[in-house]
Specification:
The complex is a heterodimer of chains A (about 110) and B (about 110).
Chain A lengths: L4 E3 L2 E4 L5 E6 L6 E7 L6 E7 L2 E4 L8 E4 L6 E5 L8 E8 L8 E2 L3 E5 L1
Parallel strand pairs in A: 2-11
Antiparallel strand pairs in A: 1-3, 3-8, 4-5, 4-9, 5-6, 7-8, 9-10, 9-11
Chain B lengths: L3 E4 L2 E4 L5 E7 L5 E7 L6 E6 L5 E4 L2 E5 L5 E6 L8 E8 L9 E3 L3 E5 L2
Parallel strand pairs in B: 2-11
Antiparallel strand pairs in B: 1-3, 3-8, 4-5, 4-9, 6-7, 7-8, 9-10, 9-11
The chains are: A mainly beta (about 110), B mainly beta (about 110).
């Protein structure tokens, strides 16, 4: 399978715990995006990377959210001190080059905070 | 901020019927994308539109980029049961020289008539 992969697919955590999600983009895609999707809504942009550079992070929901892409390949999204309102689907998308805006999404990580 | 209004919110289809849905924006977009999402999965790209007035087909799906650059529509001809799902429009706008994120509508849920 050469699509975008995300792990884990599901995560249940207790309020106050930290969680980390991983995204592996399509090989050689240099742009990577993170979105959050709540029930009944479309995905909401959080942050994006071009190679290893994080070019937009002002949309991260709070300072509890952080993302990295250390070697310009896979990326991680961390949420510290989780709250019940963080329960959502977290989606990752990658884009092959600067010449296109077509974003290819992974299957998402469903987070449930109890 | 930029908002997308997608309509209808939901619709029921009978096999063989044609389906139409549309998306309008308060702002101009450079790119319109249409995605389909099934339960528990990430959005799957259906069609990408890059020029005002552009009409593009993908099998039984046809989408158009509105002349004003503030709207787009998606048609599905001769619907089949596997067309059920949630269809999202997404707009993209470049700003400040960076590659902009996608703004999503709230989706149109397609269900099969009982």
């Amino acid at each position: 399978d050469t699509g975008v992969s995300q792990n884990p697919r599901h995560k249940i955590t207790k309020r106050g715990q930290n969680v980390t999600f991983r995204c592996d983009p399509i090989s050689e895609h240099n742009r990577l995006y993170w979105y959050r999707q709540t029930l009944g809504q479309g995905p909401e942009f959080l942050t994006y990377f071009q190679n290893e550079a994080q070019l937009e992070k002002s949309r991260l929901l709070s300072d509890r959210f952080s993302a990295e892409r250390p070697k310009g390949s896979f990326s991680t999204l961390e949420i510290q001190r989780t709250e019940q309102g963080d329960s959502a689907m977290y989606l990752c998308a990658s884009v092959p080059s600067l010449a296109t805006y077509e974003q290819y999404f992974g299957p998402g990580t469903r987070l449930t905070v109890t | 901020g930029q908002q997308l209004n997608q309509s209808p919110q939901s619709m029921f289809i009978q096999e063989g019927e044609d389906v139409s849905m549309n998306c309008t924006s308060s702002s101009i977009f450079n790119t319109w994308l249409w995605y389909k999402q099934e339960p528990g999965e990430g959005p799957v790209l259906l069609i990408a539109l890059y020029k005002a007035g552009e009409l593009t087909s993908n099998g039984r799906l046809t989408a158009q980029f509105g002349i004003t650059r503030k709207d787009s529509f998606l048609n599905i001809s001769a619907s089949i049961p596997s067309d059920v799902g949630i269809y999202f429009c997404a707009g993209q706008f470049d700003y400040g020289g960076s590659q902009g994120n996608l703004i999503f509508g709230k989706g149109t849920k397609l269900s099969v008539k009982p």
